[in-house]
Structures are given as C-alpha cells and as structure tokens.
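stuck on this one:
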Amino acid sequence: MAILKHIASKNADYTETERYLTFQHDENTGRLIRDEEGYPIPREKYLLEGLNCDPQTFARECRKVNQRYGKNKRKSEIKTHHYIISFDPRDQALGLTMEQAQQMGMEFAKKHFPGHQIMVCTHEDGSNGAGNIHVHIVLNSVRMLDTESLPYEMRPCDTRAGFKHNCTKPFLEYLQKEVMEMCRQQGLN
C-alpha cells in the first residue's frame, strides 16, 4: 500500500531542500555524505522537475514570492510543505518505474497544490533498505497564483495568491484517499 507523509519545515534555507533531493544523505543523521575532498556526493539516480518554477532556482524564486507578499519573515513561520508518496516495494514487480512515479507525482502536484511553486523529485532508494520508489513534492508555503477551490473543506483564502498553504487533517485524509485511488487506477498495491 502506498503511504503519504507530510513534513512542514520552518527552515528558511530553501536550498537545503534541493540538496536533500539531489545529494546523498546519511539515513540516521540526515547529514550530507561527502567525498574524500569534502564535496557532497550526488545521488546516483533521481528525477527532478518543477511546477511554476525552475527546480534549479526554486530557492530564489520562493524568496521572491515571499517578498512580494510580505510572508515568511519570521523564524516561526512554515516555509515549505514536503509531501512524500512512498509506493509499496511490491509495485516494482507490477511494472512501476521511476519515470511513471515521477509522472504520477507531477499530476498529483498539479491537481492538489495549484498555484504553488513546487519541486517534484523521484528516488528509487527507499529508507532503511526498503528500496521502494518514492516521490517528494516540496512546495513553497506561499501560493503565488489564484486558483479554484478543491473538493475538500477549504477557506476562501486557501485559493488566493499571497496566502499560505493550510495542511489540515481533512486535507491529509483527502490526499491519502487520492493516493489510494491513483494507485488503484494504475493497477498498483
């Protein structure tokens, strides 16, 4: 069964997110793994795309939107929301590829997080040796574009540019059902 995980981050260093997605990290400490010369070691394989941004300039673009709307100025504010869709390890035997997972992640992000700057990154090296394919969806907490309401409990401001993403329990329950439906449609566990 696929699992959806949510992490809200108050770290103002948006580039740290890109480093996590593209470079190897120690599973236990979370620290970058470096080579003998001290340089971070790139991940062997990953797929990275952006929505409403270039993933290579995600950090700069997020800071510009924050500045435009006067948001994310305090340390206590949530700067990014990180959603992880972890597919069942048995899904690879059913034909799930990184490319298919990335496409599903992009479609999921477009549908459920409209108006946000988003990085979508797929890895095949699940934690703790699971080896399962998983998709990271990282979005700036500040919405840059106005959008339509989605089919779950939303406040009017949740669709307007300049307002922050609101991750509620009903929203997470809605997203988990959407992940299950997406897997069912693809013939996955």
Remarks:
- Helices lie at 14-22, 58-69, 98-112, 169-185.
- The chain has one domain: 3-182.
- The radius of gyration is 17 Å.
- The longest helix spans residues 169-185.
